[in-house]
Amino acid sequence: MKKFFVTTPIYYLNGEPHLGHYYATTIADVLARYNRKFGSGAFFLTGTDEHGQKVADASKKDNLSPQEYTDKLSAIWEGVWKDLDISYDYFIRTTNPTHKVLCQVVIQKLLETNDIYPQEYEALYCVGAESFVTQSELRVGGLCPDHDEKPQIVLEKNYFFRLNKYKDRVLQLIEDGKINIIPESRRNEAIELLKNPEVGDFSVTREKVSWGIPVPFDTSQTLYVWIDALFNYMSGVLASQNIDIKDLSIGEILAKIGDIWPPDLQVMGKDILKFHAVYWPAFLLALGIPEENLPKTILITGFFLSDGRKMSKSIGNVIVPQDIITYFDEITDGLGNDILRYVILREMRIGNDGDITKEKIIGIYESELVNKFGNTFSRVIGMAKKYDVQVQPESSAVFQDYHNAFQKYDIYGAIHSIFEQINIIGQEIESHKPWELYKEGKTEELNTLMQNWLESLHQITEIIEPIMPSTANLMKRLLAGENIHIFPRIEK
Ligand code: MSP
């Protein structure tokens, strides 16, 4: 049976992960965990984007060769994701030999099918975005819209990809929902891009960037970092299975990864929509990949802002997840990571930007996790002990709202459905006043109520696991009678 294949963007190695990177990676992690627990299994791919001018420049600042630099930095990134319990199945680096071979097979094939052609040209290039920009996209002062940098003027011979040949087909696929883009506003943006005559053939090789994958048929060229990067989604699967692709056709390559390919869900930020919704499917179509084997859903997130601007290493306004996690780890029994997961997933409805501060995170922790979640949990368990109620943990109830939300990749909706259940328990405790039933000796009524609430808590423990795995473990221990505390108050 095909596994649920979920990807994050591969990250540039010019710093350490910050909250913006943590966000997309956490969304992918939740969906991988959900599908492992309730679906047909998952294959979760993440990794690092290691070629291009930006990484080469960063390595110089560190006095290392690009290879030494990427070895060092990718180990840091992988280490951070491991520390943060990100359950990826494979970590793809674009310096991986399988990846390089695949990219060379791809560019060779595009040449053979006449989908690329050489051309001299002059354009503006922003190294921060690793992207060509037009005059009209620039901010005041001639700066790139997302980076505080002036683009360079580039004059060189490149190979151009015939995007114009594929735009109508990609448009049709998006309009028919065969490529699904969430949220709706980003789907519309992709449609506009595909209808925009300015979005046309584009360069897929570079002449003056030596830190890149060599173009096999023209030694003056390396691959443009974006075509290189996008194919990580295929090479990552191949490398994870140790598949040797030398001398294989694209069809034969796909046949080897049929239990994983195509991606079911690709998560990313709004700045890289064009690459994934326009370029990526067009490349795959040019390779002759059938429509049913194209990526299924693209989920576009908003940005984490800091002082109203995109949180970004280039701008220097980043918050790293570890700072917040350490703070909460000290207050709770190692639940810092879960608390941060909860807050960002519940605070940023998919698609919207969000300004997150430590104060805001503390506020949400206190009002929701301490006062509602922890409090309800502790009350029910405390009463069960006091009134000596035992419960059979098995229950057949399904949380349909929760699963429906996951089918739409709506993690916020899934969290909401869990909290509705918590609220119901809280309201029932207030209206039934179990302490009075106990005093009055109404044991049967008390037992039935307690039994229901405990069963609900058992179910919540199960369904919260993809979202907050450590919390689920702690809840299991609590329900088994261990004397531990969940989500304590912050001492002032
Ligand atoms: N290397 C490319 C992606 C190639 S994927 C085939 C790249 N890397 S990146 O490191 O610059 O960004 C990776 C992802 O992090 C993007 O989806 C980007 O939107 C996301 N974020 C970076 N900063 C962000 C915020 N401040 N907020 C939310 N996500 C943002 O682009």
Structure write-up:
By secondary structure, this protein is α/β, with parallel strands linked by helices. It has two domains: 4-301, 3-Layer(aba) Sandwich (Rossmann fold), CATH 3.40.50.620; 313-479, Isoleucyl-tRNA Synthetase, Domain 1. It contains 18 helices and 16 strands. The strands form four sheets. Strands 1, 2, 3, 4, 8, 12 and 13 form a seven-stranded parallel β-sheet that branches. Strands 6-5-7-9 form a four-stranded antiparallel β-sheet, with helices on one face. Helix 1 (19-38) links the parallel strand 2 (11-12) and strand 3 (42-49). The longest helix has 29 residues, at 358-386. The model has no long low-confidence stretch (mean pLDDT 93). Bound molecules: 5'-O-[(L-methionyl)-sulphamoyl]adenosine. 5'-O-[(L-methionyl)-sulphamoyl]adenosine binds at residues 9-12, 20-21, 23-24, 49, 229-230, 232, 268-269, 271-272, 301, 303-304, 310-312.
